[in-house]
Every structure is written in structure tokens, then in C-alpha cells.
Specification:
This protein has 102 residues and is an all-alpha fold. The protein has a domain of 64 residues. The C terminus is likely disordered. Helix 1 runs antiparallel to helix 2.
Length: 102
């Protein structure tokens, strides 16, 4: 008479499950890092805008000249586009649709 065993999984299936959860964790971690980076880019954008404003200085001159502000704003916008694109690619891969935004 065979022993009364509970059904056990082969060790290969446990490894596949562990690898899948590790990959899922890594993906979620990357998504959270991208969201945090996006927030930091927004804060930087606002700080640069404040530095170029004349409202908050006694002399009426901005702390940051307009030419430098324009250059920095372009770079910050480019960084924001890069972060947003990478976030979209991560977010698309976690939702499982795999299609690009229309």
C-alpha cells in the first residue's frame, strides 16, 4: 500500500516560481524608482523656475539669467522625457498588453 503523502512540487517548479517573484519584485522596484525620479525632476524644474523669477529678490534681478534658465529648462525637459519614456516601457511590460501608446 502506498504511503499517504501530500502532493509535493518538484524542485524545478519552486525555482521557476521564485525566479518569477524575484523578477516581479525587481520590476516593481524599478517602477517605484522611476516614479521617485520623476518627482525629483519636477522639484528641480520648480527650483530652477524660482531661481529665474524676479519676485523673490530684493534687487529685482533674477538669480539665474534668462539664457541659462532656458538652457537648463530644455535639459530638464529632456530628462523628464527620458524618465517618462522609461516609465512607460516598464509600466507597459507590467500590465501585459505590450502595445505602444496611441
Amino acid at each position: 500500500m502506498p504511503e499517504n503523502k501530500t502532493e509535493e512540487r518538484p524542485p524545478q517548479l519552486d525555482n521557476v516560481r521564485d525566479n518569477a517573484t524575484q523578477e516581479d519584485f525587481k520590476m516593481k522596484n524599478k517602477v517605484w524608482e522611476m516614479l521617485e525620479l520623476d518627482t525629483k525632476v519636477d522639484v528641480l524644474r520648480h527650483l530652477i523656475r524660482l531661481a529665474a523669477s524676479t519676485k523673490y529678490t530684493r534687487s529685482g534681478k533674477p538669480c539665474l539669467p534668462m539664457k541659462k534658465y532656458e538652457m537648463m529648462a530644455r535639459y530638464i525637459n529632456e530628462i523628464g522625457c527620458m524618465v517618462g519614456g522609461y516609465y512607460k516601457s516598464l509600466n507597459g511590460s507590467t500590465s501585459g498588453n505590450g502595445s505602444a501608446a496611441k
